[in-house]
From TrEMBL, chain A:
It is found in: Cell membrane; Membrane. HAMAP family: ATP_synth_c_bact. InterPro entries: ATP_synth_F0_csu, ATP_synth_F0_csu_DDCD_BS, ATP_synth_F0_csu_sf, ATPase_proteolipid_c-like_dom, F/V-ATP_Csub_sf. GO terms for cellular component: plasma membrane; proton-transporting ATP synthase complex; proton-transporting two-sector ATPase complex, proton-transporting domain. It is a multi-pass membrane protein. Residues 13-72 form the V-ATPase proteolipid subunit C-like domain. Coiled coil: none annotated. The gene is atpE. PROSITE patterns: ATPASE_C. Belongs to the ATPase C chain family. It comes from Eiseniibacteriota bacterium. This is ATP synthase subunit c. Key component of the F(0) channel; it plays a direct role in translocation across the membrane. A homomeric c-ring of between 10-14 subunits forms the central stalk rotor element with the F(1) delta and epsilon subunits. F(1)F(0) ATP synthase produces ATP from ADP in the presence of a proton or sodium gradient. F-type ATPases consist of two structural domains, F(1) containing the extramembraneous catalytic core and F(0) containing the membrane proton channel, linked together by a central stalk and a peripheral stalk. During catalysis, ATP synthesis in the catalytic domain of F(1) is coupled via a rotary mechanism of the central stalk subunits to proton translocation. The chain crosses the membrane at residues 6-29, 49-72.
TrEMBL record, chain B:
This is ATP synthase subunit a. CDD domains: ATP-synt_Fo_a_6. It is found in: Cell membrane; Membrane. NCBIfam families: ATP_synt_6_or_A (TIGR01131). The gene is atpB. One of its GO terms (molecular function) is proton-transporting ATP synthase activity, rotational mechanism. Keywords: ATP synthesis, Cell membrane, CF(0), Hydrogen ion transport, Ion transport, Membrane, Transmembrane, Transmembrane helix, Transport. Its main location: membrane. The chain crosses the membrane at residues 12-30, 36-59, 71-92, 98-118, 130-148, 219-236, 274-293, 299-318, 379-402, 408-433.
Amino acid sequence: MDFQAALGLALPLGIGIAAIGSGLGLGMIGSGAMQAIGRQPEAAAKIQLAMIIIGALAEALTIYAFVTMFILSGKIGG
Amino acid sequence: MGLEFLARVRRTTLWVGALAAIVGMTYSGFAAGGGLAAGAVWSLVNLFLVERLVVALTGSDRGTPAAARGAALALAGMLGLFAAGAFLLMALPAEPLLVGFGFPFGVMLLKACSTLLLESAAWRRFTASRWQVALAVALLIAATWAIAERSVAASGGAVAAGPSGAAHGDAAHADAAHGDAGEHGASSKPTMFPNFLGVVIEANHGKPWADALHHVEPVVFSLFVALLLSGIAIAANRRRALRPGRFQAGVELVVQGLFDFVASVLGEKHARRYLPFLGSLFLYILAMNWIGFVPGFHAATANINITAGLALCTFLFVQFTGMRELGFGGWVDHMAGSPRSAIEWGLVPIMLPIHIIGELAKPLSLACRLFGNIFGEDMLLVGFASLGIMMLGFIPNVPVGIPLQLPFLFFCLLTSTLQALVFTTLSTVYLLLMLPHDDHGHEGEAHPAH
């Protein structure tokens, strides 16, 4: 298997696996936020803000994987 | 058709002349574009002088010494203009000058024809039905495209820009061809939507200044956004009224909102001090992200260099603030984990490198997060737009497409805003962590997990 075939196999798999992790993480963040809002609807705005910020942090890890994929995908078909 | 008609002709000619000059300079070199501009300006000055002369000779105050003076000045101006024209003919090629000279007259002719047309009964009948108008516009665009293609193929020049109506789709297809043709080997760069600068660079392919411009393309767009925001800020600060007008009130709304947001993290005292940096950061990143959705422009943050620059600025600002607030010794102490007991002192050799790496990881993550998100959005939109073009690929030679990226535009608008917010919030939090923690007193302050 030459390196291009290996890259072609590994890159989409890498993104997919990274997406699993951030999917789980974001789901947990969302569920925690929902429960907190359910308990205290007055604090909804603060909780929403914190949820969005932490969501962006969790998503960043998948973005790193995405960027790596893009850099390496240039090497395929070279 | 009075004098105000001539004023409108002047205004229109200035716009037309500027546009024609830019197009001419892009596709035929500086001499041609400069000739067009110079010819148009010369013709406008000529028109102005003739107008003054006629008004002086036939106006309501003819025969008075003031009118005679005006007529004499106009005649003297015409002599000067004649000399200027001779000089121009020596310096610039003749055809562009002649074409530029004809611009005001062309504009006058078109304005007169359109006035005649728009007030006729036939036009009213035609525009009564929307479908007729839409069909006519579509046929017009198709005809223009066919003619342009044929004429450009005949002259063998660069691909004409064509009518930039409808979706981004058309131009993305042309740019895909450009992108492949303009590659100097190396790695295959992903397709992007075309922008104003890209068109200029492609048309002047191979010239050294075009290659240099290609390298600093994102910087040009970021500078443009910076100038735009500075202009808005300067304009809002003129004639600051105690009872503000709409524009000033709008800007004050934005600043107040940003202040409340920063104060909710840093506390009022610190917020007042650090609002300029953090607020500008938010607005700058937001503007750069949003301008990517305007056709013809490019989001500078879709380039790692720009985001790395922003993250570096934030990193240096936070560290410098730490050194200033805590003193240099206090800053090192903070980096070592603020050891107070013997155990903590013993752990310093571990804590210091860990904290330093942690501090270095923060700007890295900021840069990569912003770049990845905005670049990813761009790729998403390009992907769907290309798909839309491929779907209509069975129509030969007409690069239109179904704008499939439209629903994603709204999603990307949201995520662009979010990423600007996240960048700013994280910068604020890093600043908070660096400032001396007051243990009692600050209510309404978020307690972030380290």
